[in-house]
Request: fold
Amino acid sequence: MTGLMLLIFAGLLILALPVGYALIISSGIAVITVGGSPSVVAIVKLFQPTQSFPLLAIPFFILSGNIMMGGVLGKKLIEFATAIVGRFHGGLGQVGVVGSTIFGGVSGSAVAEASALGTMLIPWQKKEGYPPAFGAASIAAASTIAGLIPPSIALILYATVSSQSIAALFLAGVLPGLMLCTGFMLVCYFSGRLRNFPRLSEVLTVRRVLKISIAALPALVMPIFIVVLLRAGIATPTEVSVVAVAYGLLVSGLLYRDLTMQRIYQALVGTCVTTGVVMLVIMASNLVGYVLVVENVPATVAQWVMETLKSPVLVIVMMNFIMLFVGMFLDLPAAILLLAPTFVAMGNSIGMDPVQLGVMMTINLSIGLFTPPVGTTLFITAAISREPVGRIVKELLPFYAVAVTVLLLFSYVPALTVY
Reply:
């Protein structure tokens, strides 16, 4: 049954069918034909995950991000990032990295970040004399930090599949997100210094910097607000997501006074589209998970890996290679939902903490978002900058080095995630 499902799935991907549909068709055929189960079983398994209360957090966090980033606040965040790092070497590249980190604390979506920040920053970088390919590369890489900074959609999905605490995963995701931010900023700094990128000539006074910082404060405190509420046990992730929507409405409506019915409508439409895509993959992955569980695939694979490799170090190396390969072809949500059940079993067999595994998976699969041939953020920024993908990939090489270094640290040092 599993073999037939994988064969059909691979064929449908080659035919360029969207991942969600390919998963539903391949697993559905496998269940009904080889599995011998009635079609109602497949339908029930598709419907089942939509009744999960924790998953309600996803549309609400997406909505809060759309509300807050669709107006003045997005510009205030860019002004803040520019005031902090814009005057240094590679300043406009660093603005994109800092902006991505802050945006990640609001949107939780790398694809949304790449589109929003790329549209704002890449034309500005080109105008100031930066190589367009470098600007596209910095945004493509930095936007993936959203997968780690709370409220990360990827970590919510992993928590759902692995039955782990969303609060613990959110807290564990902050440090790698900040480390990637620091590493990417250093790449921009040394690239700007060695290649003599133009520097912003505007000199900001302390008073001006303070004014800009206060204007951006509502977005800056958002991830702290989320982690504190969750860690203190004041609210569940779903309740926090609803509070985040109310917070976004209040900030946009009362503080910035830019909330209109048109903006609310656009935020709702964007949320519905994004949620629909994510939920389709979740539904399909649940049916795939049913096929794997029926045939005991996760436990069998975990046992085979331990008997073959024996060393936990080699097991982690193998998991990382598999994830890097899969991440090159599948988007982050689909890859997490498909790999997590098997990898959690493998992690348990070597004594790896599930929270550490979740962070490792998210970092690893996020690299796939800016890696050919299907890197989503890579192709978004390539379209915005109108640069060849090959030229952008060349500029991405130092960013890959930073991301892989951070990945290795969090793969082999449990103390960085388990505290």
Summary: The chain has a mean pLDDT of 87. The chain is about 75% helix and 0% strand.
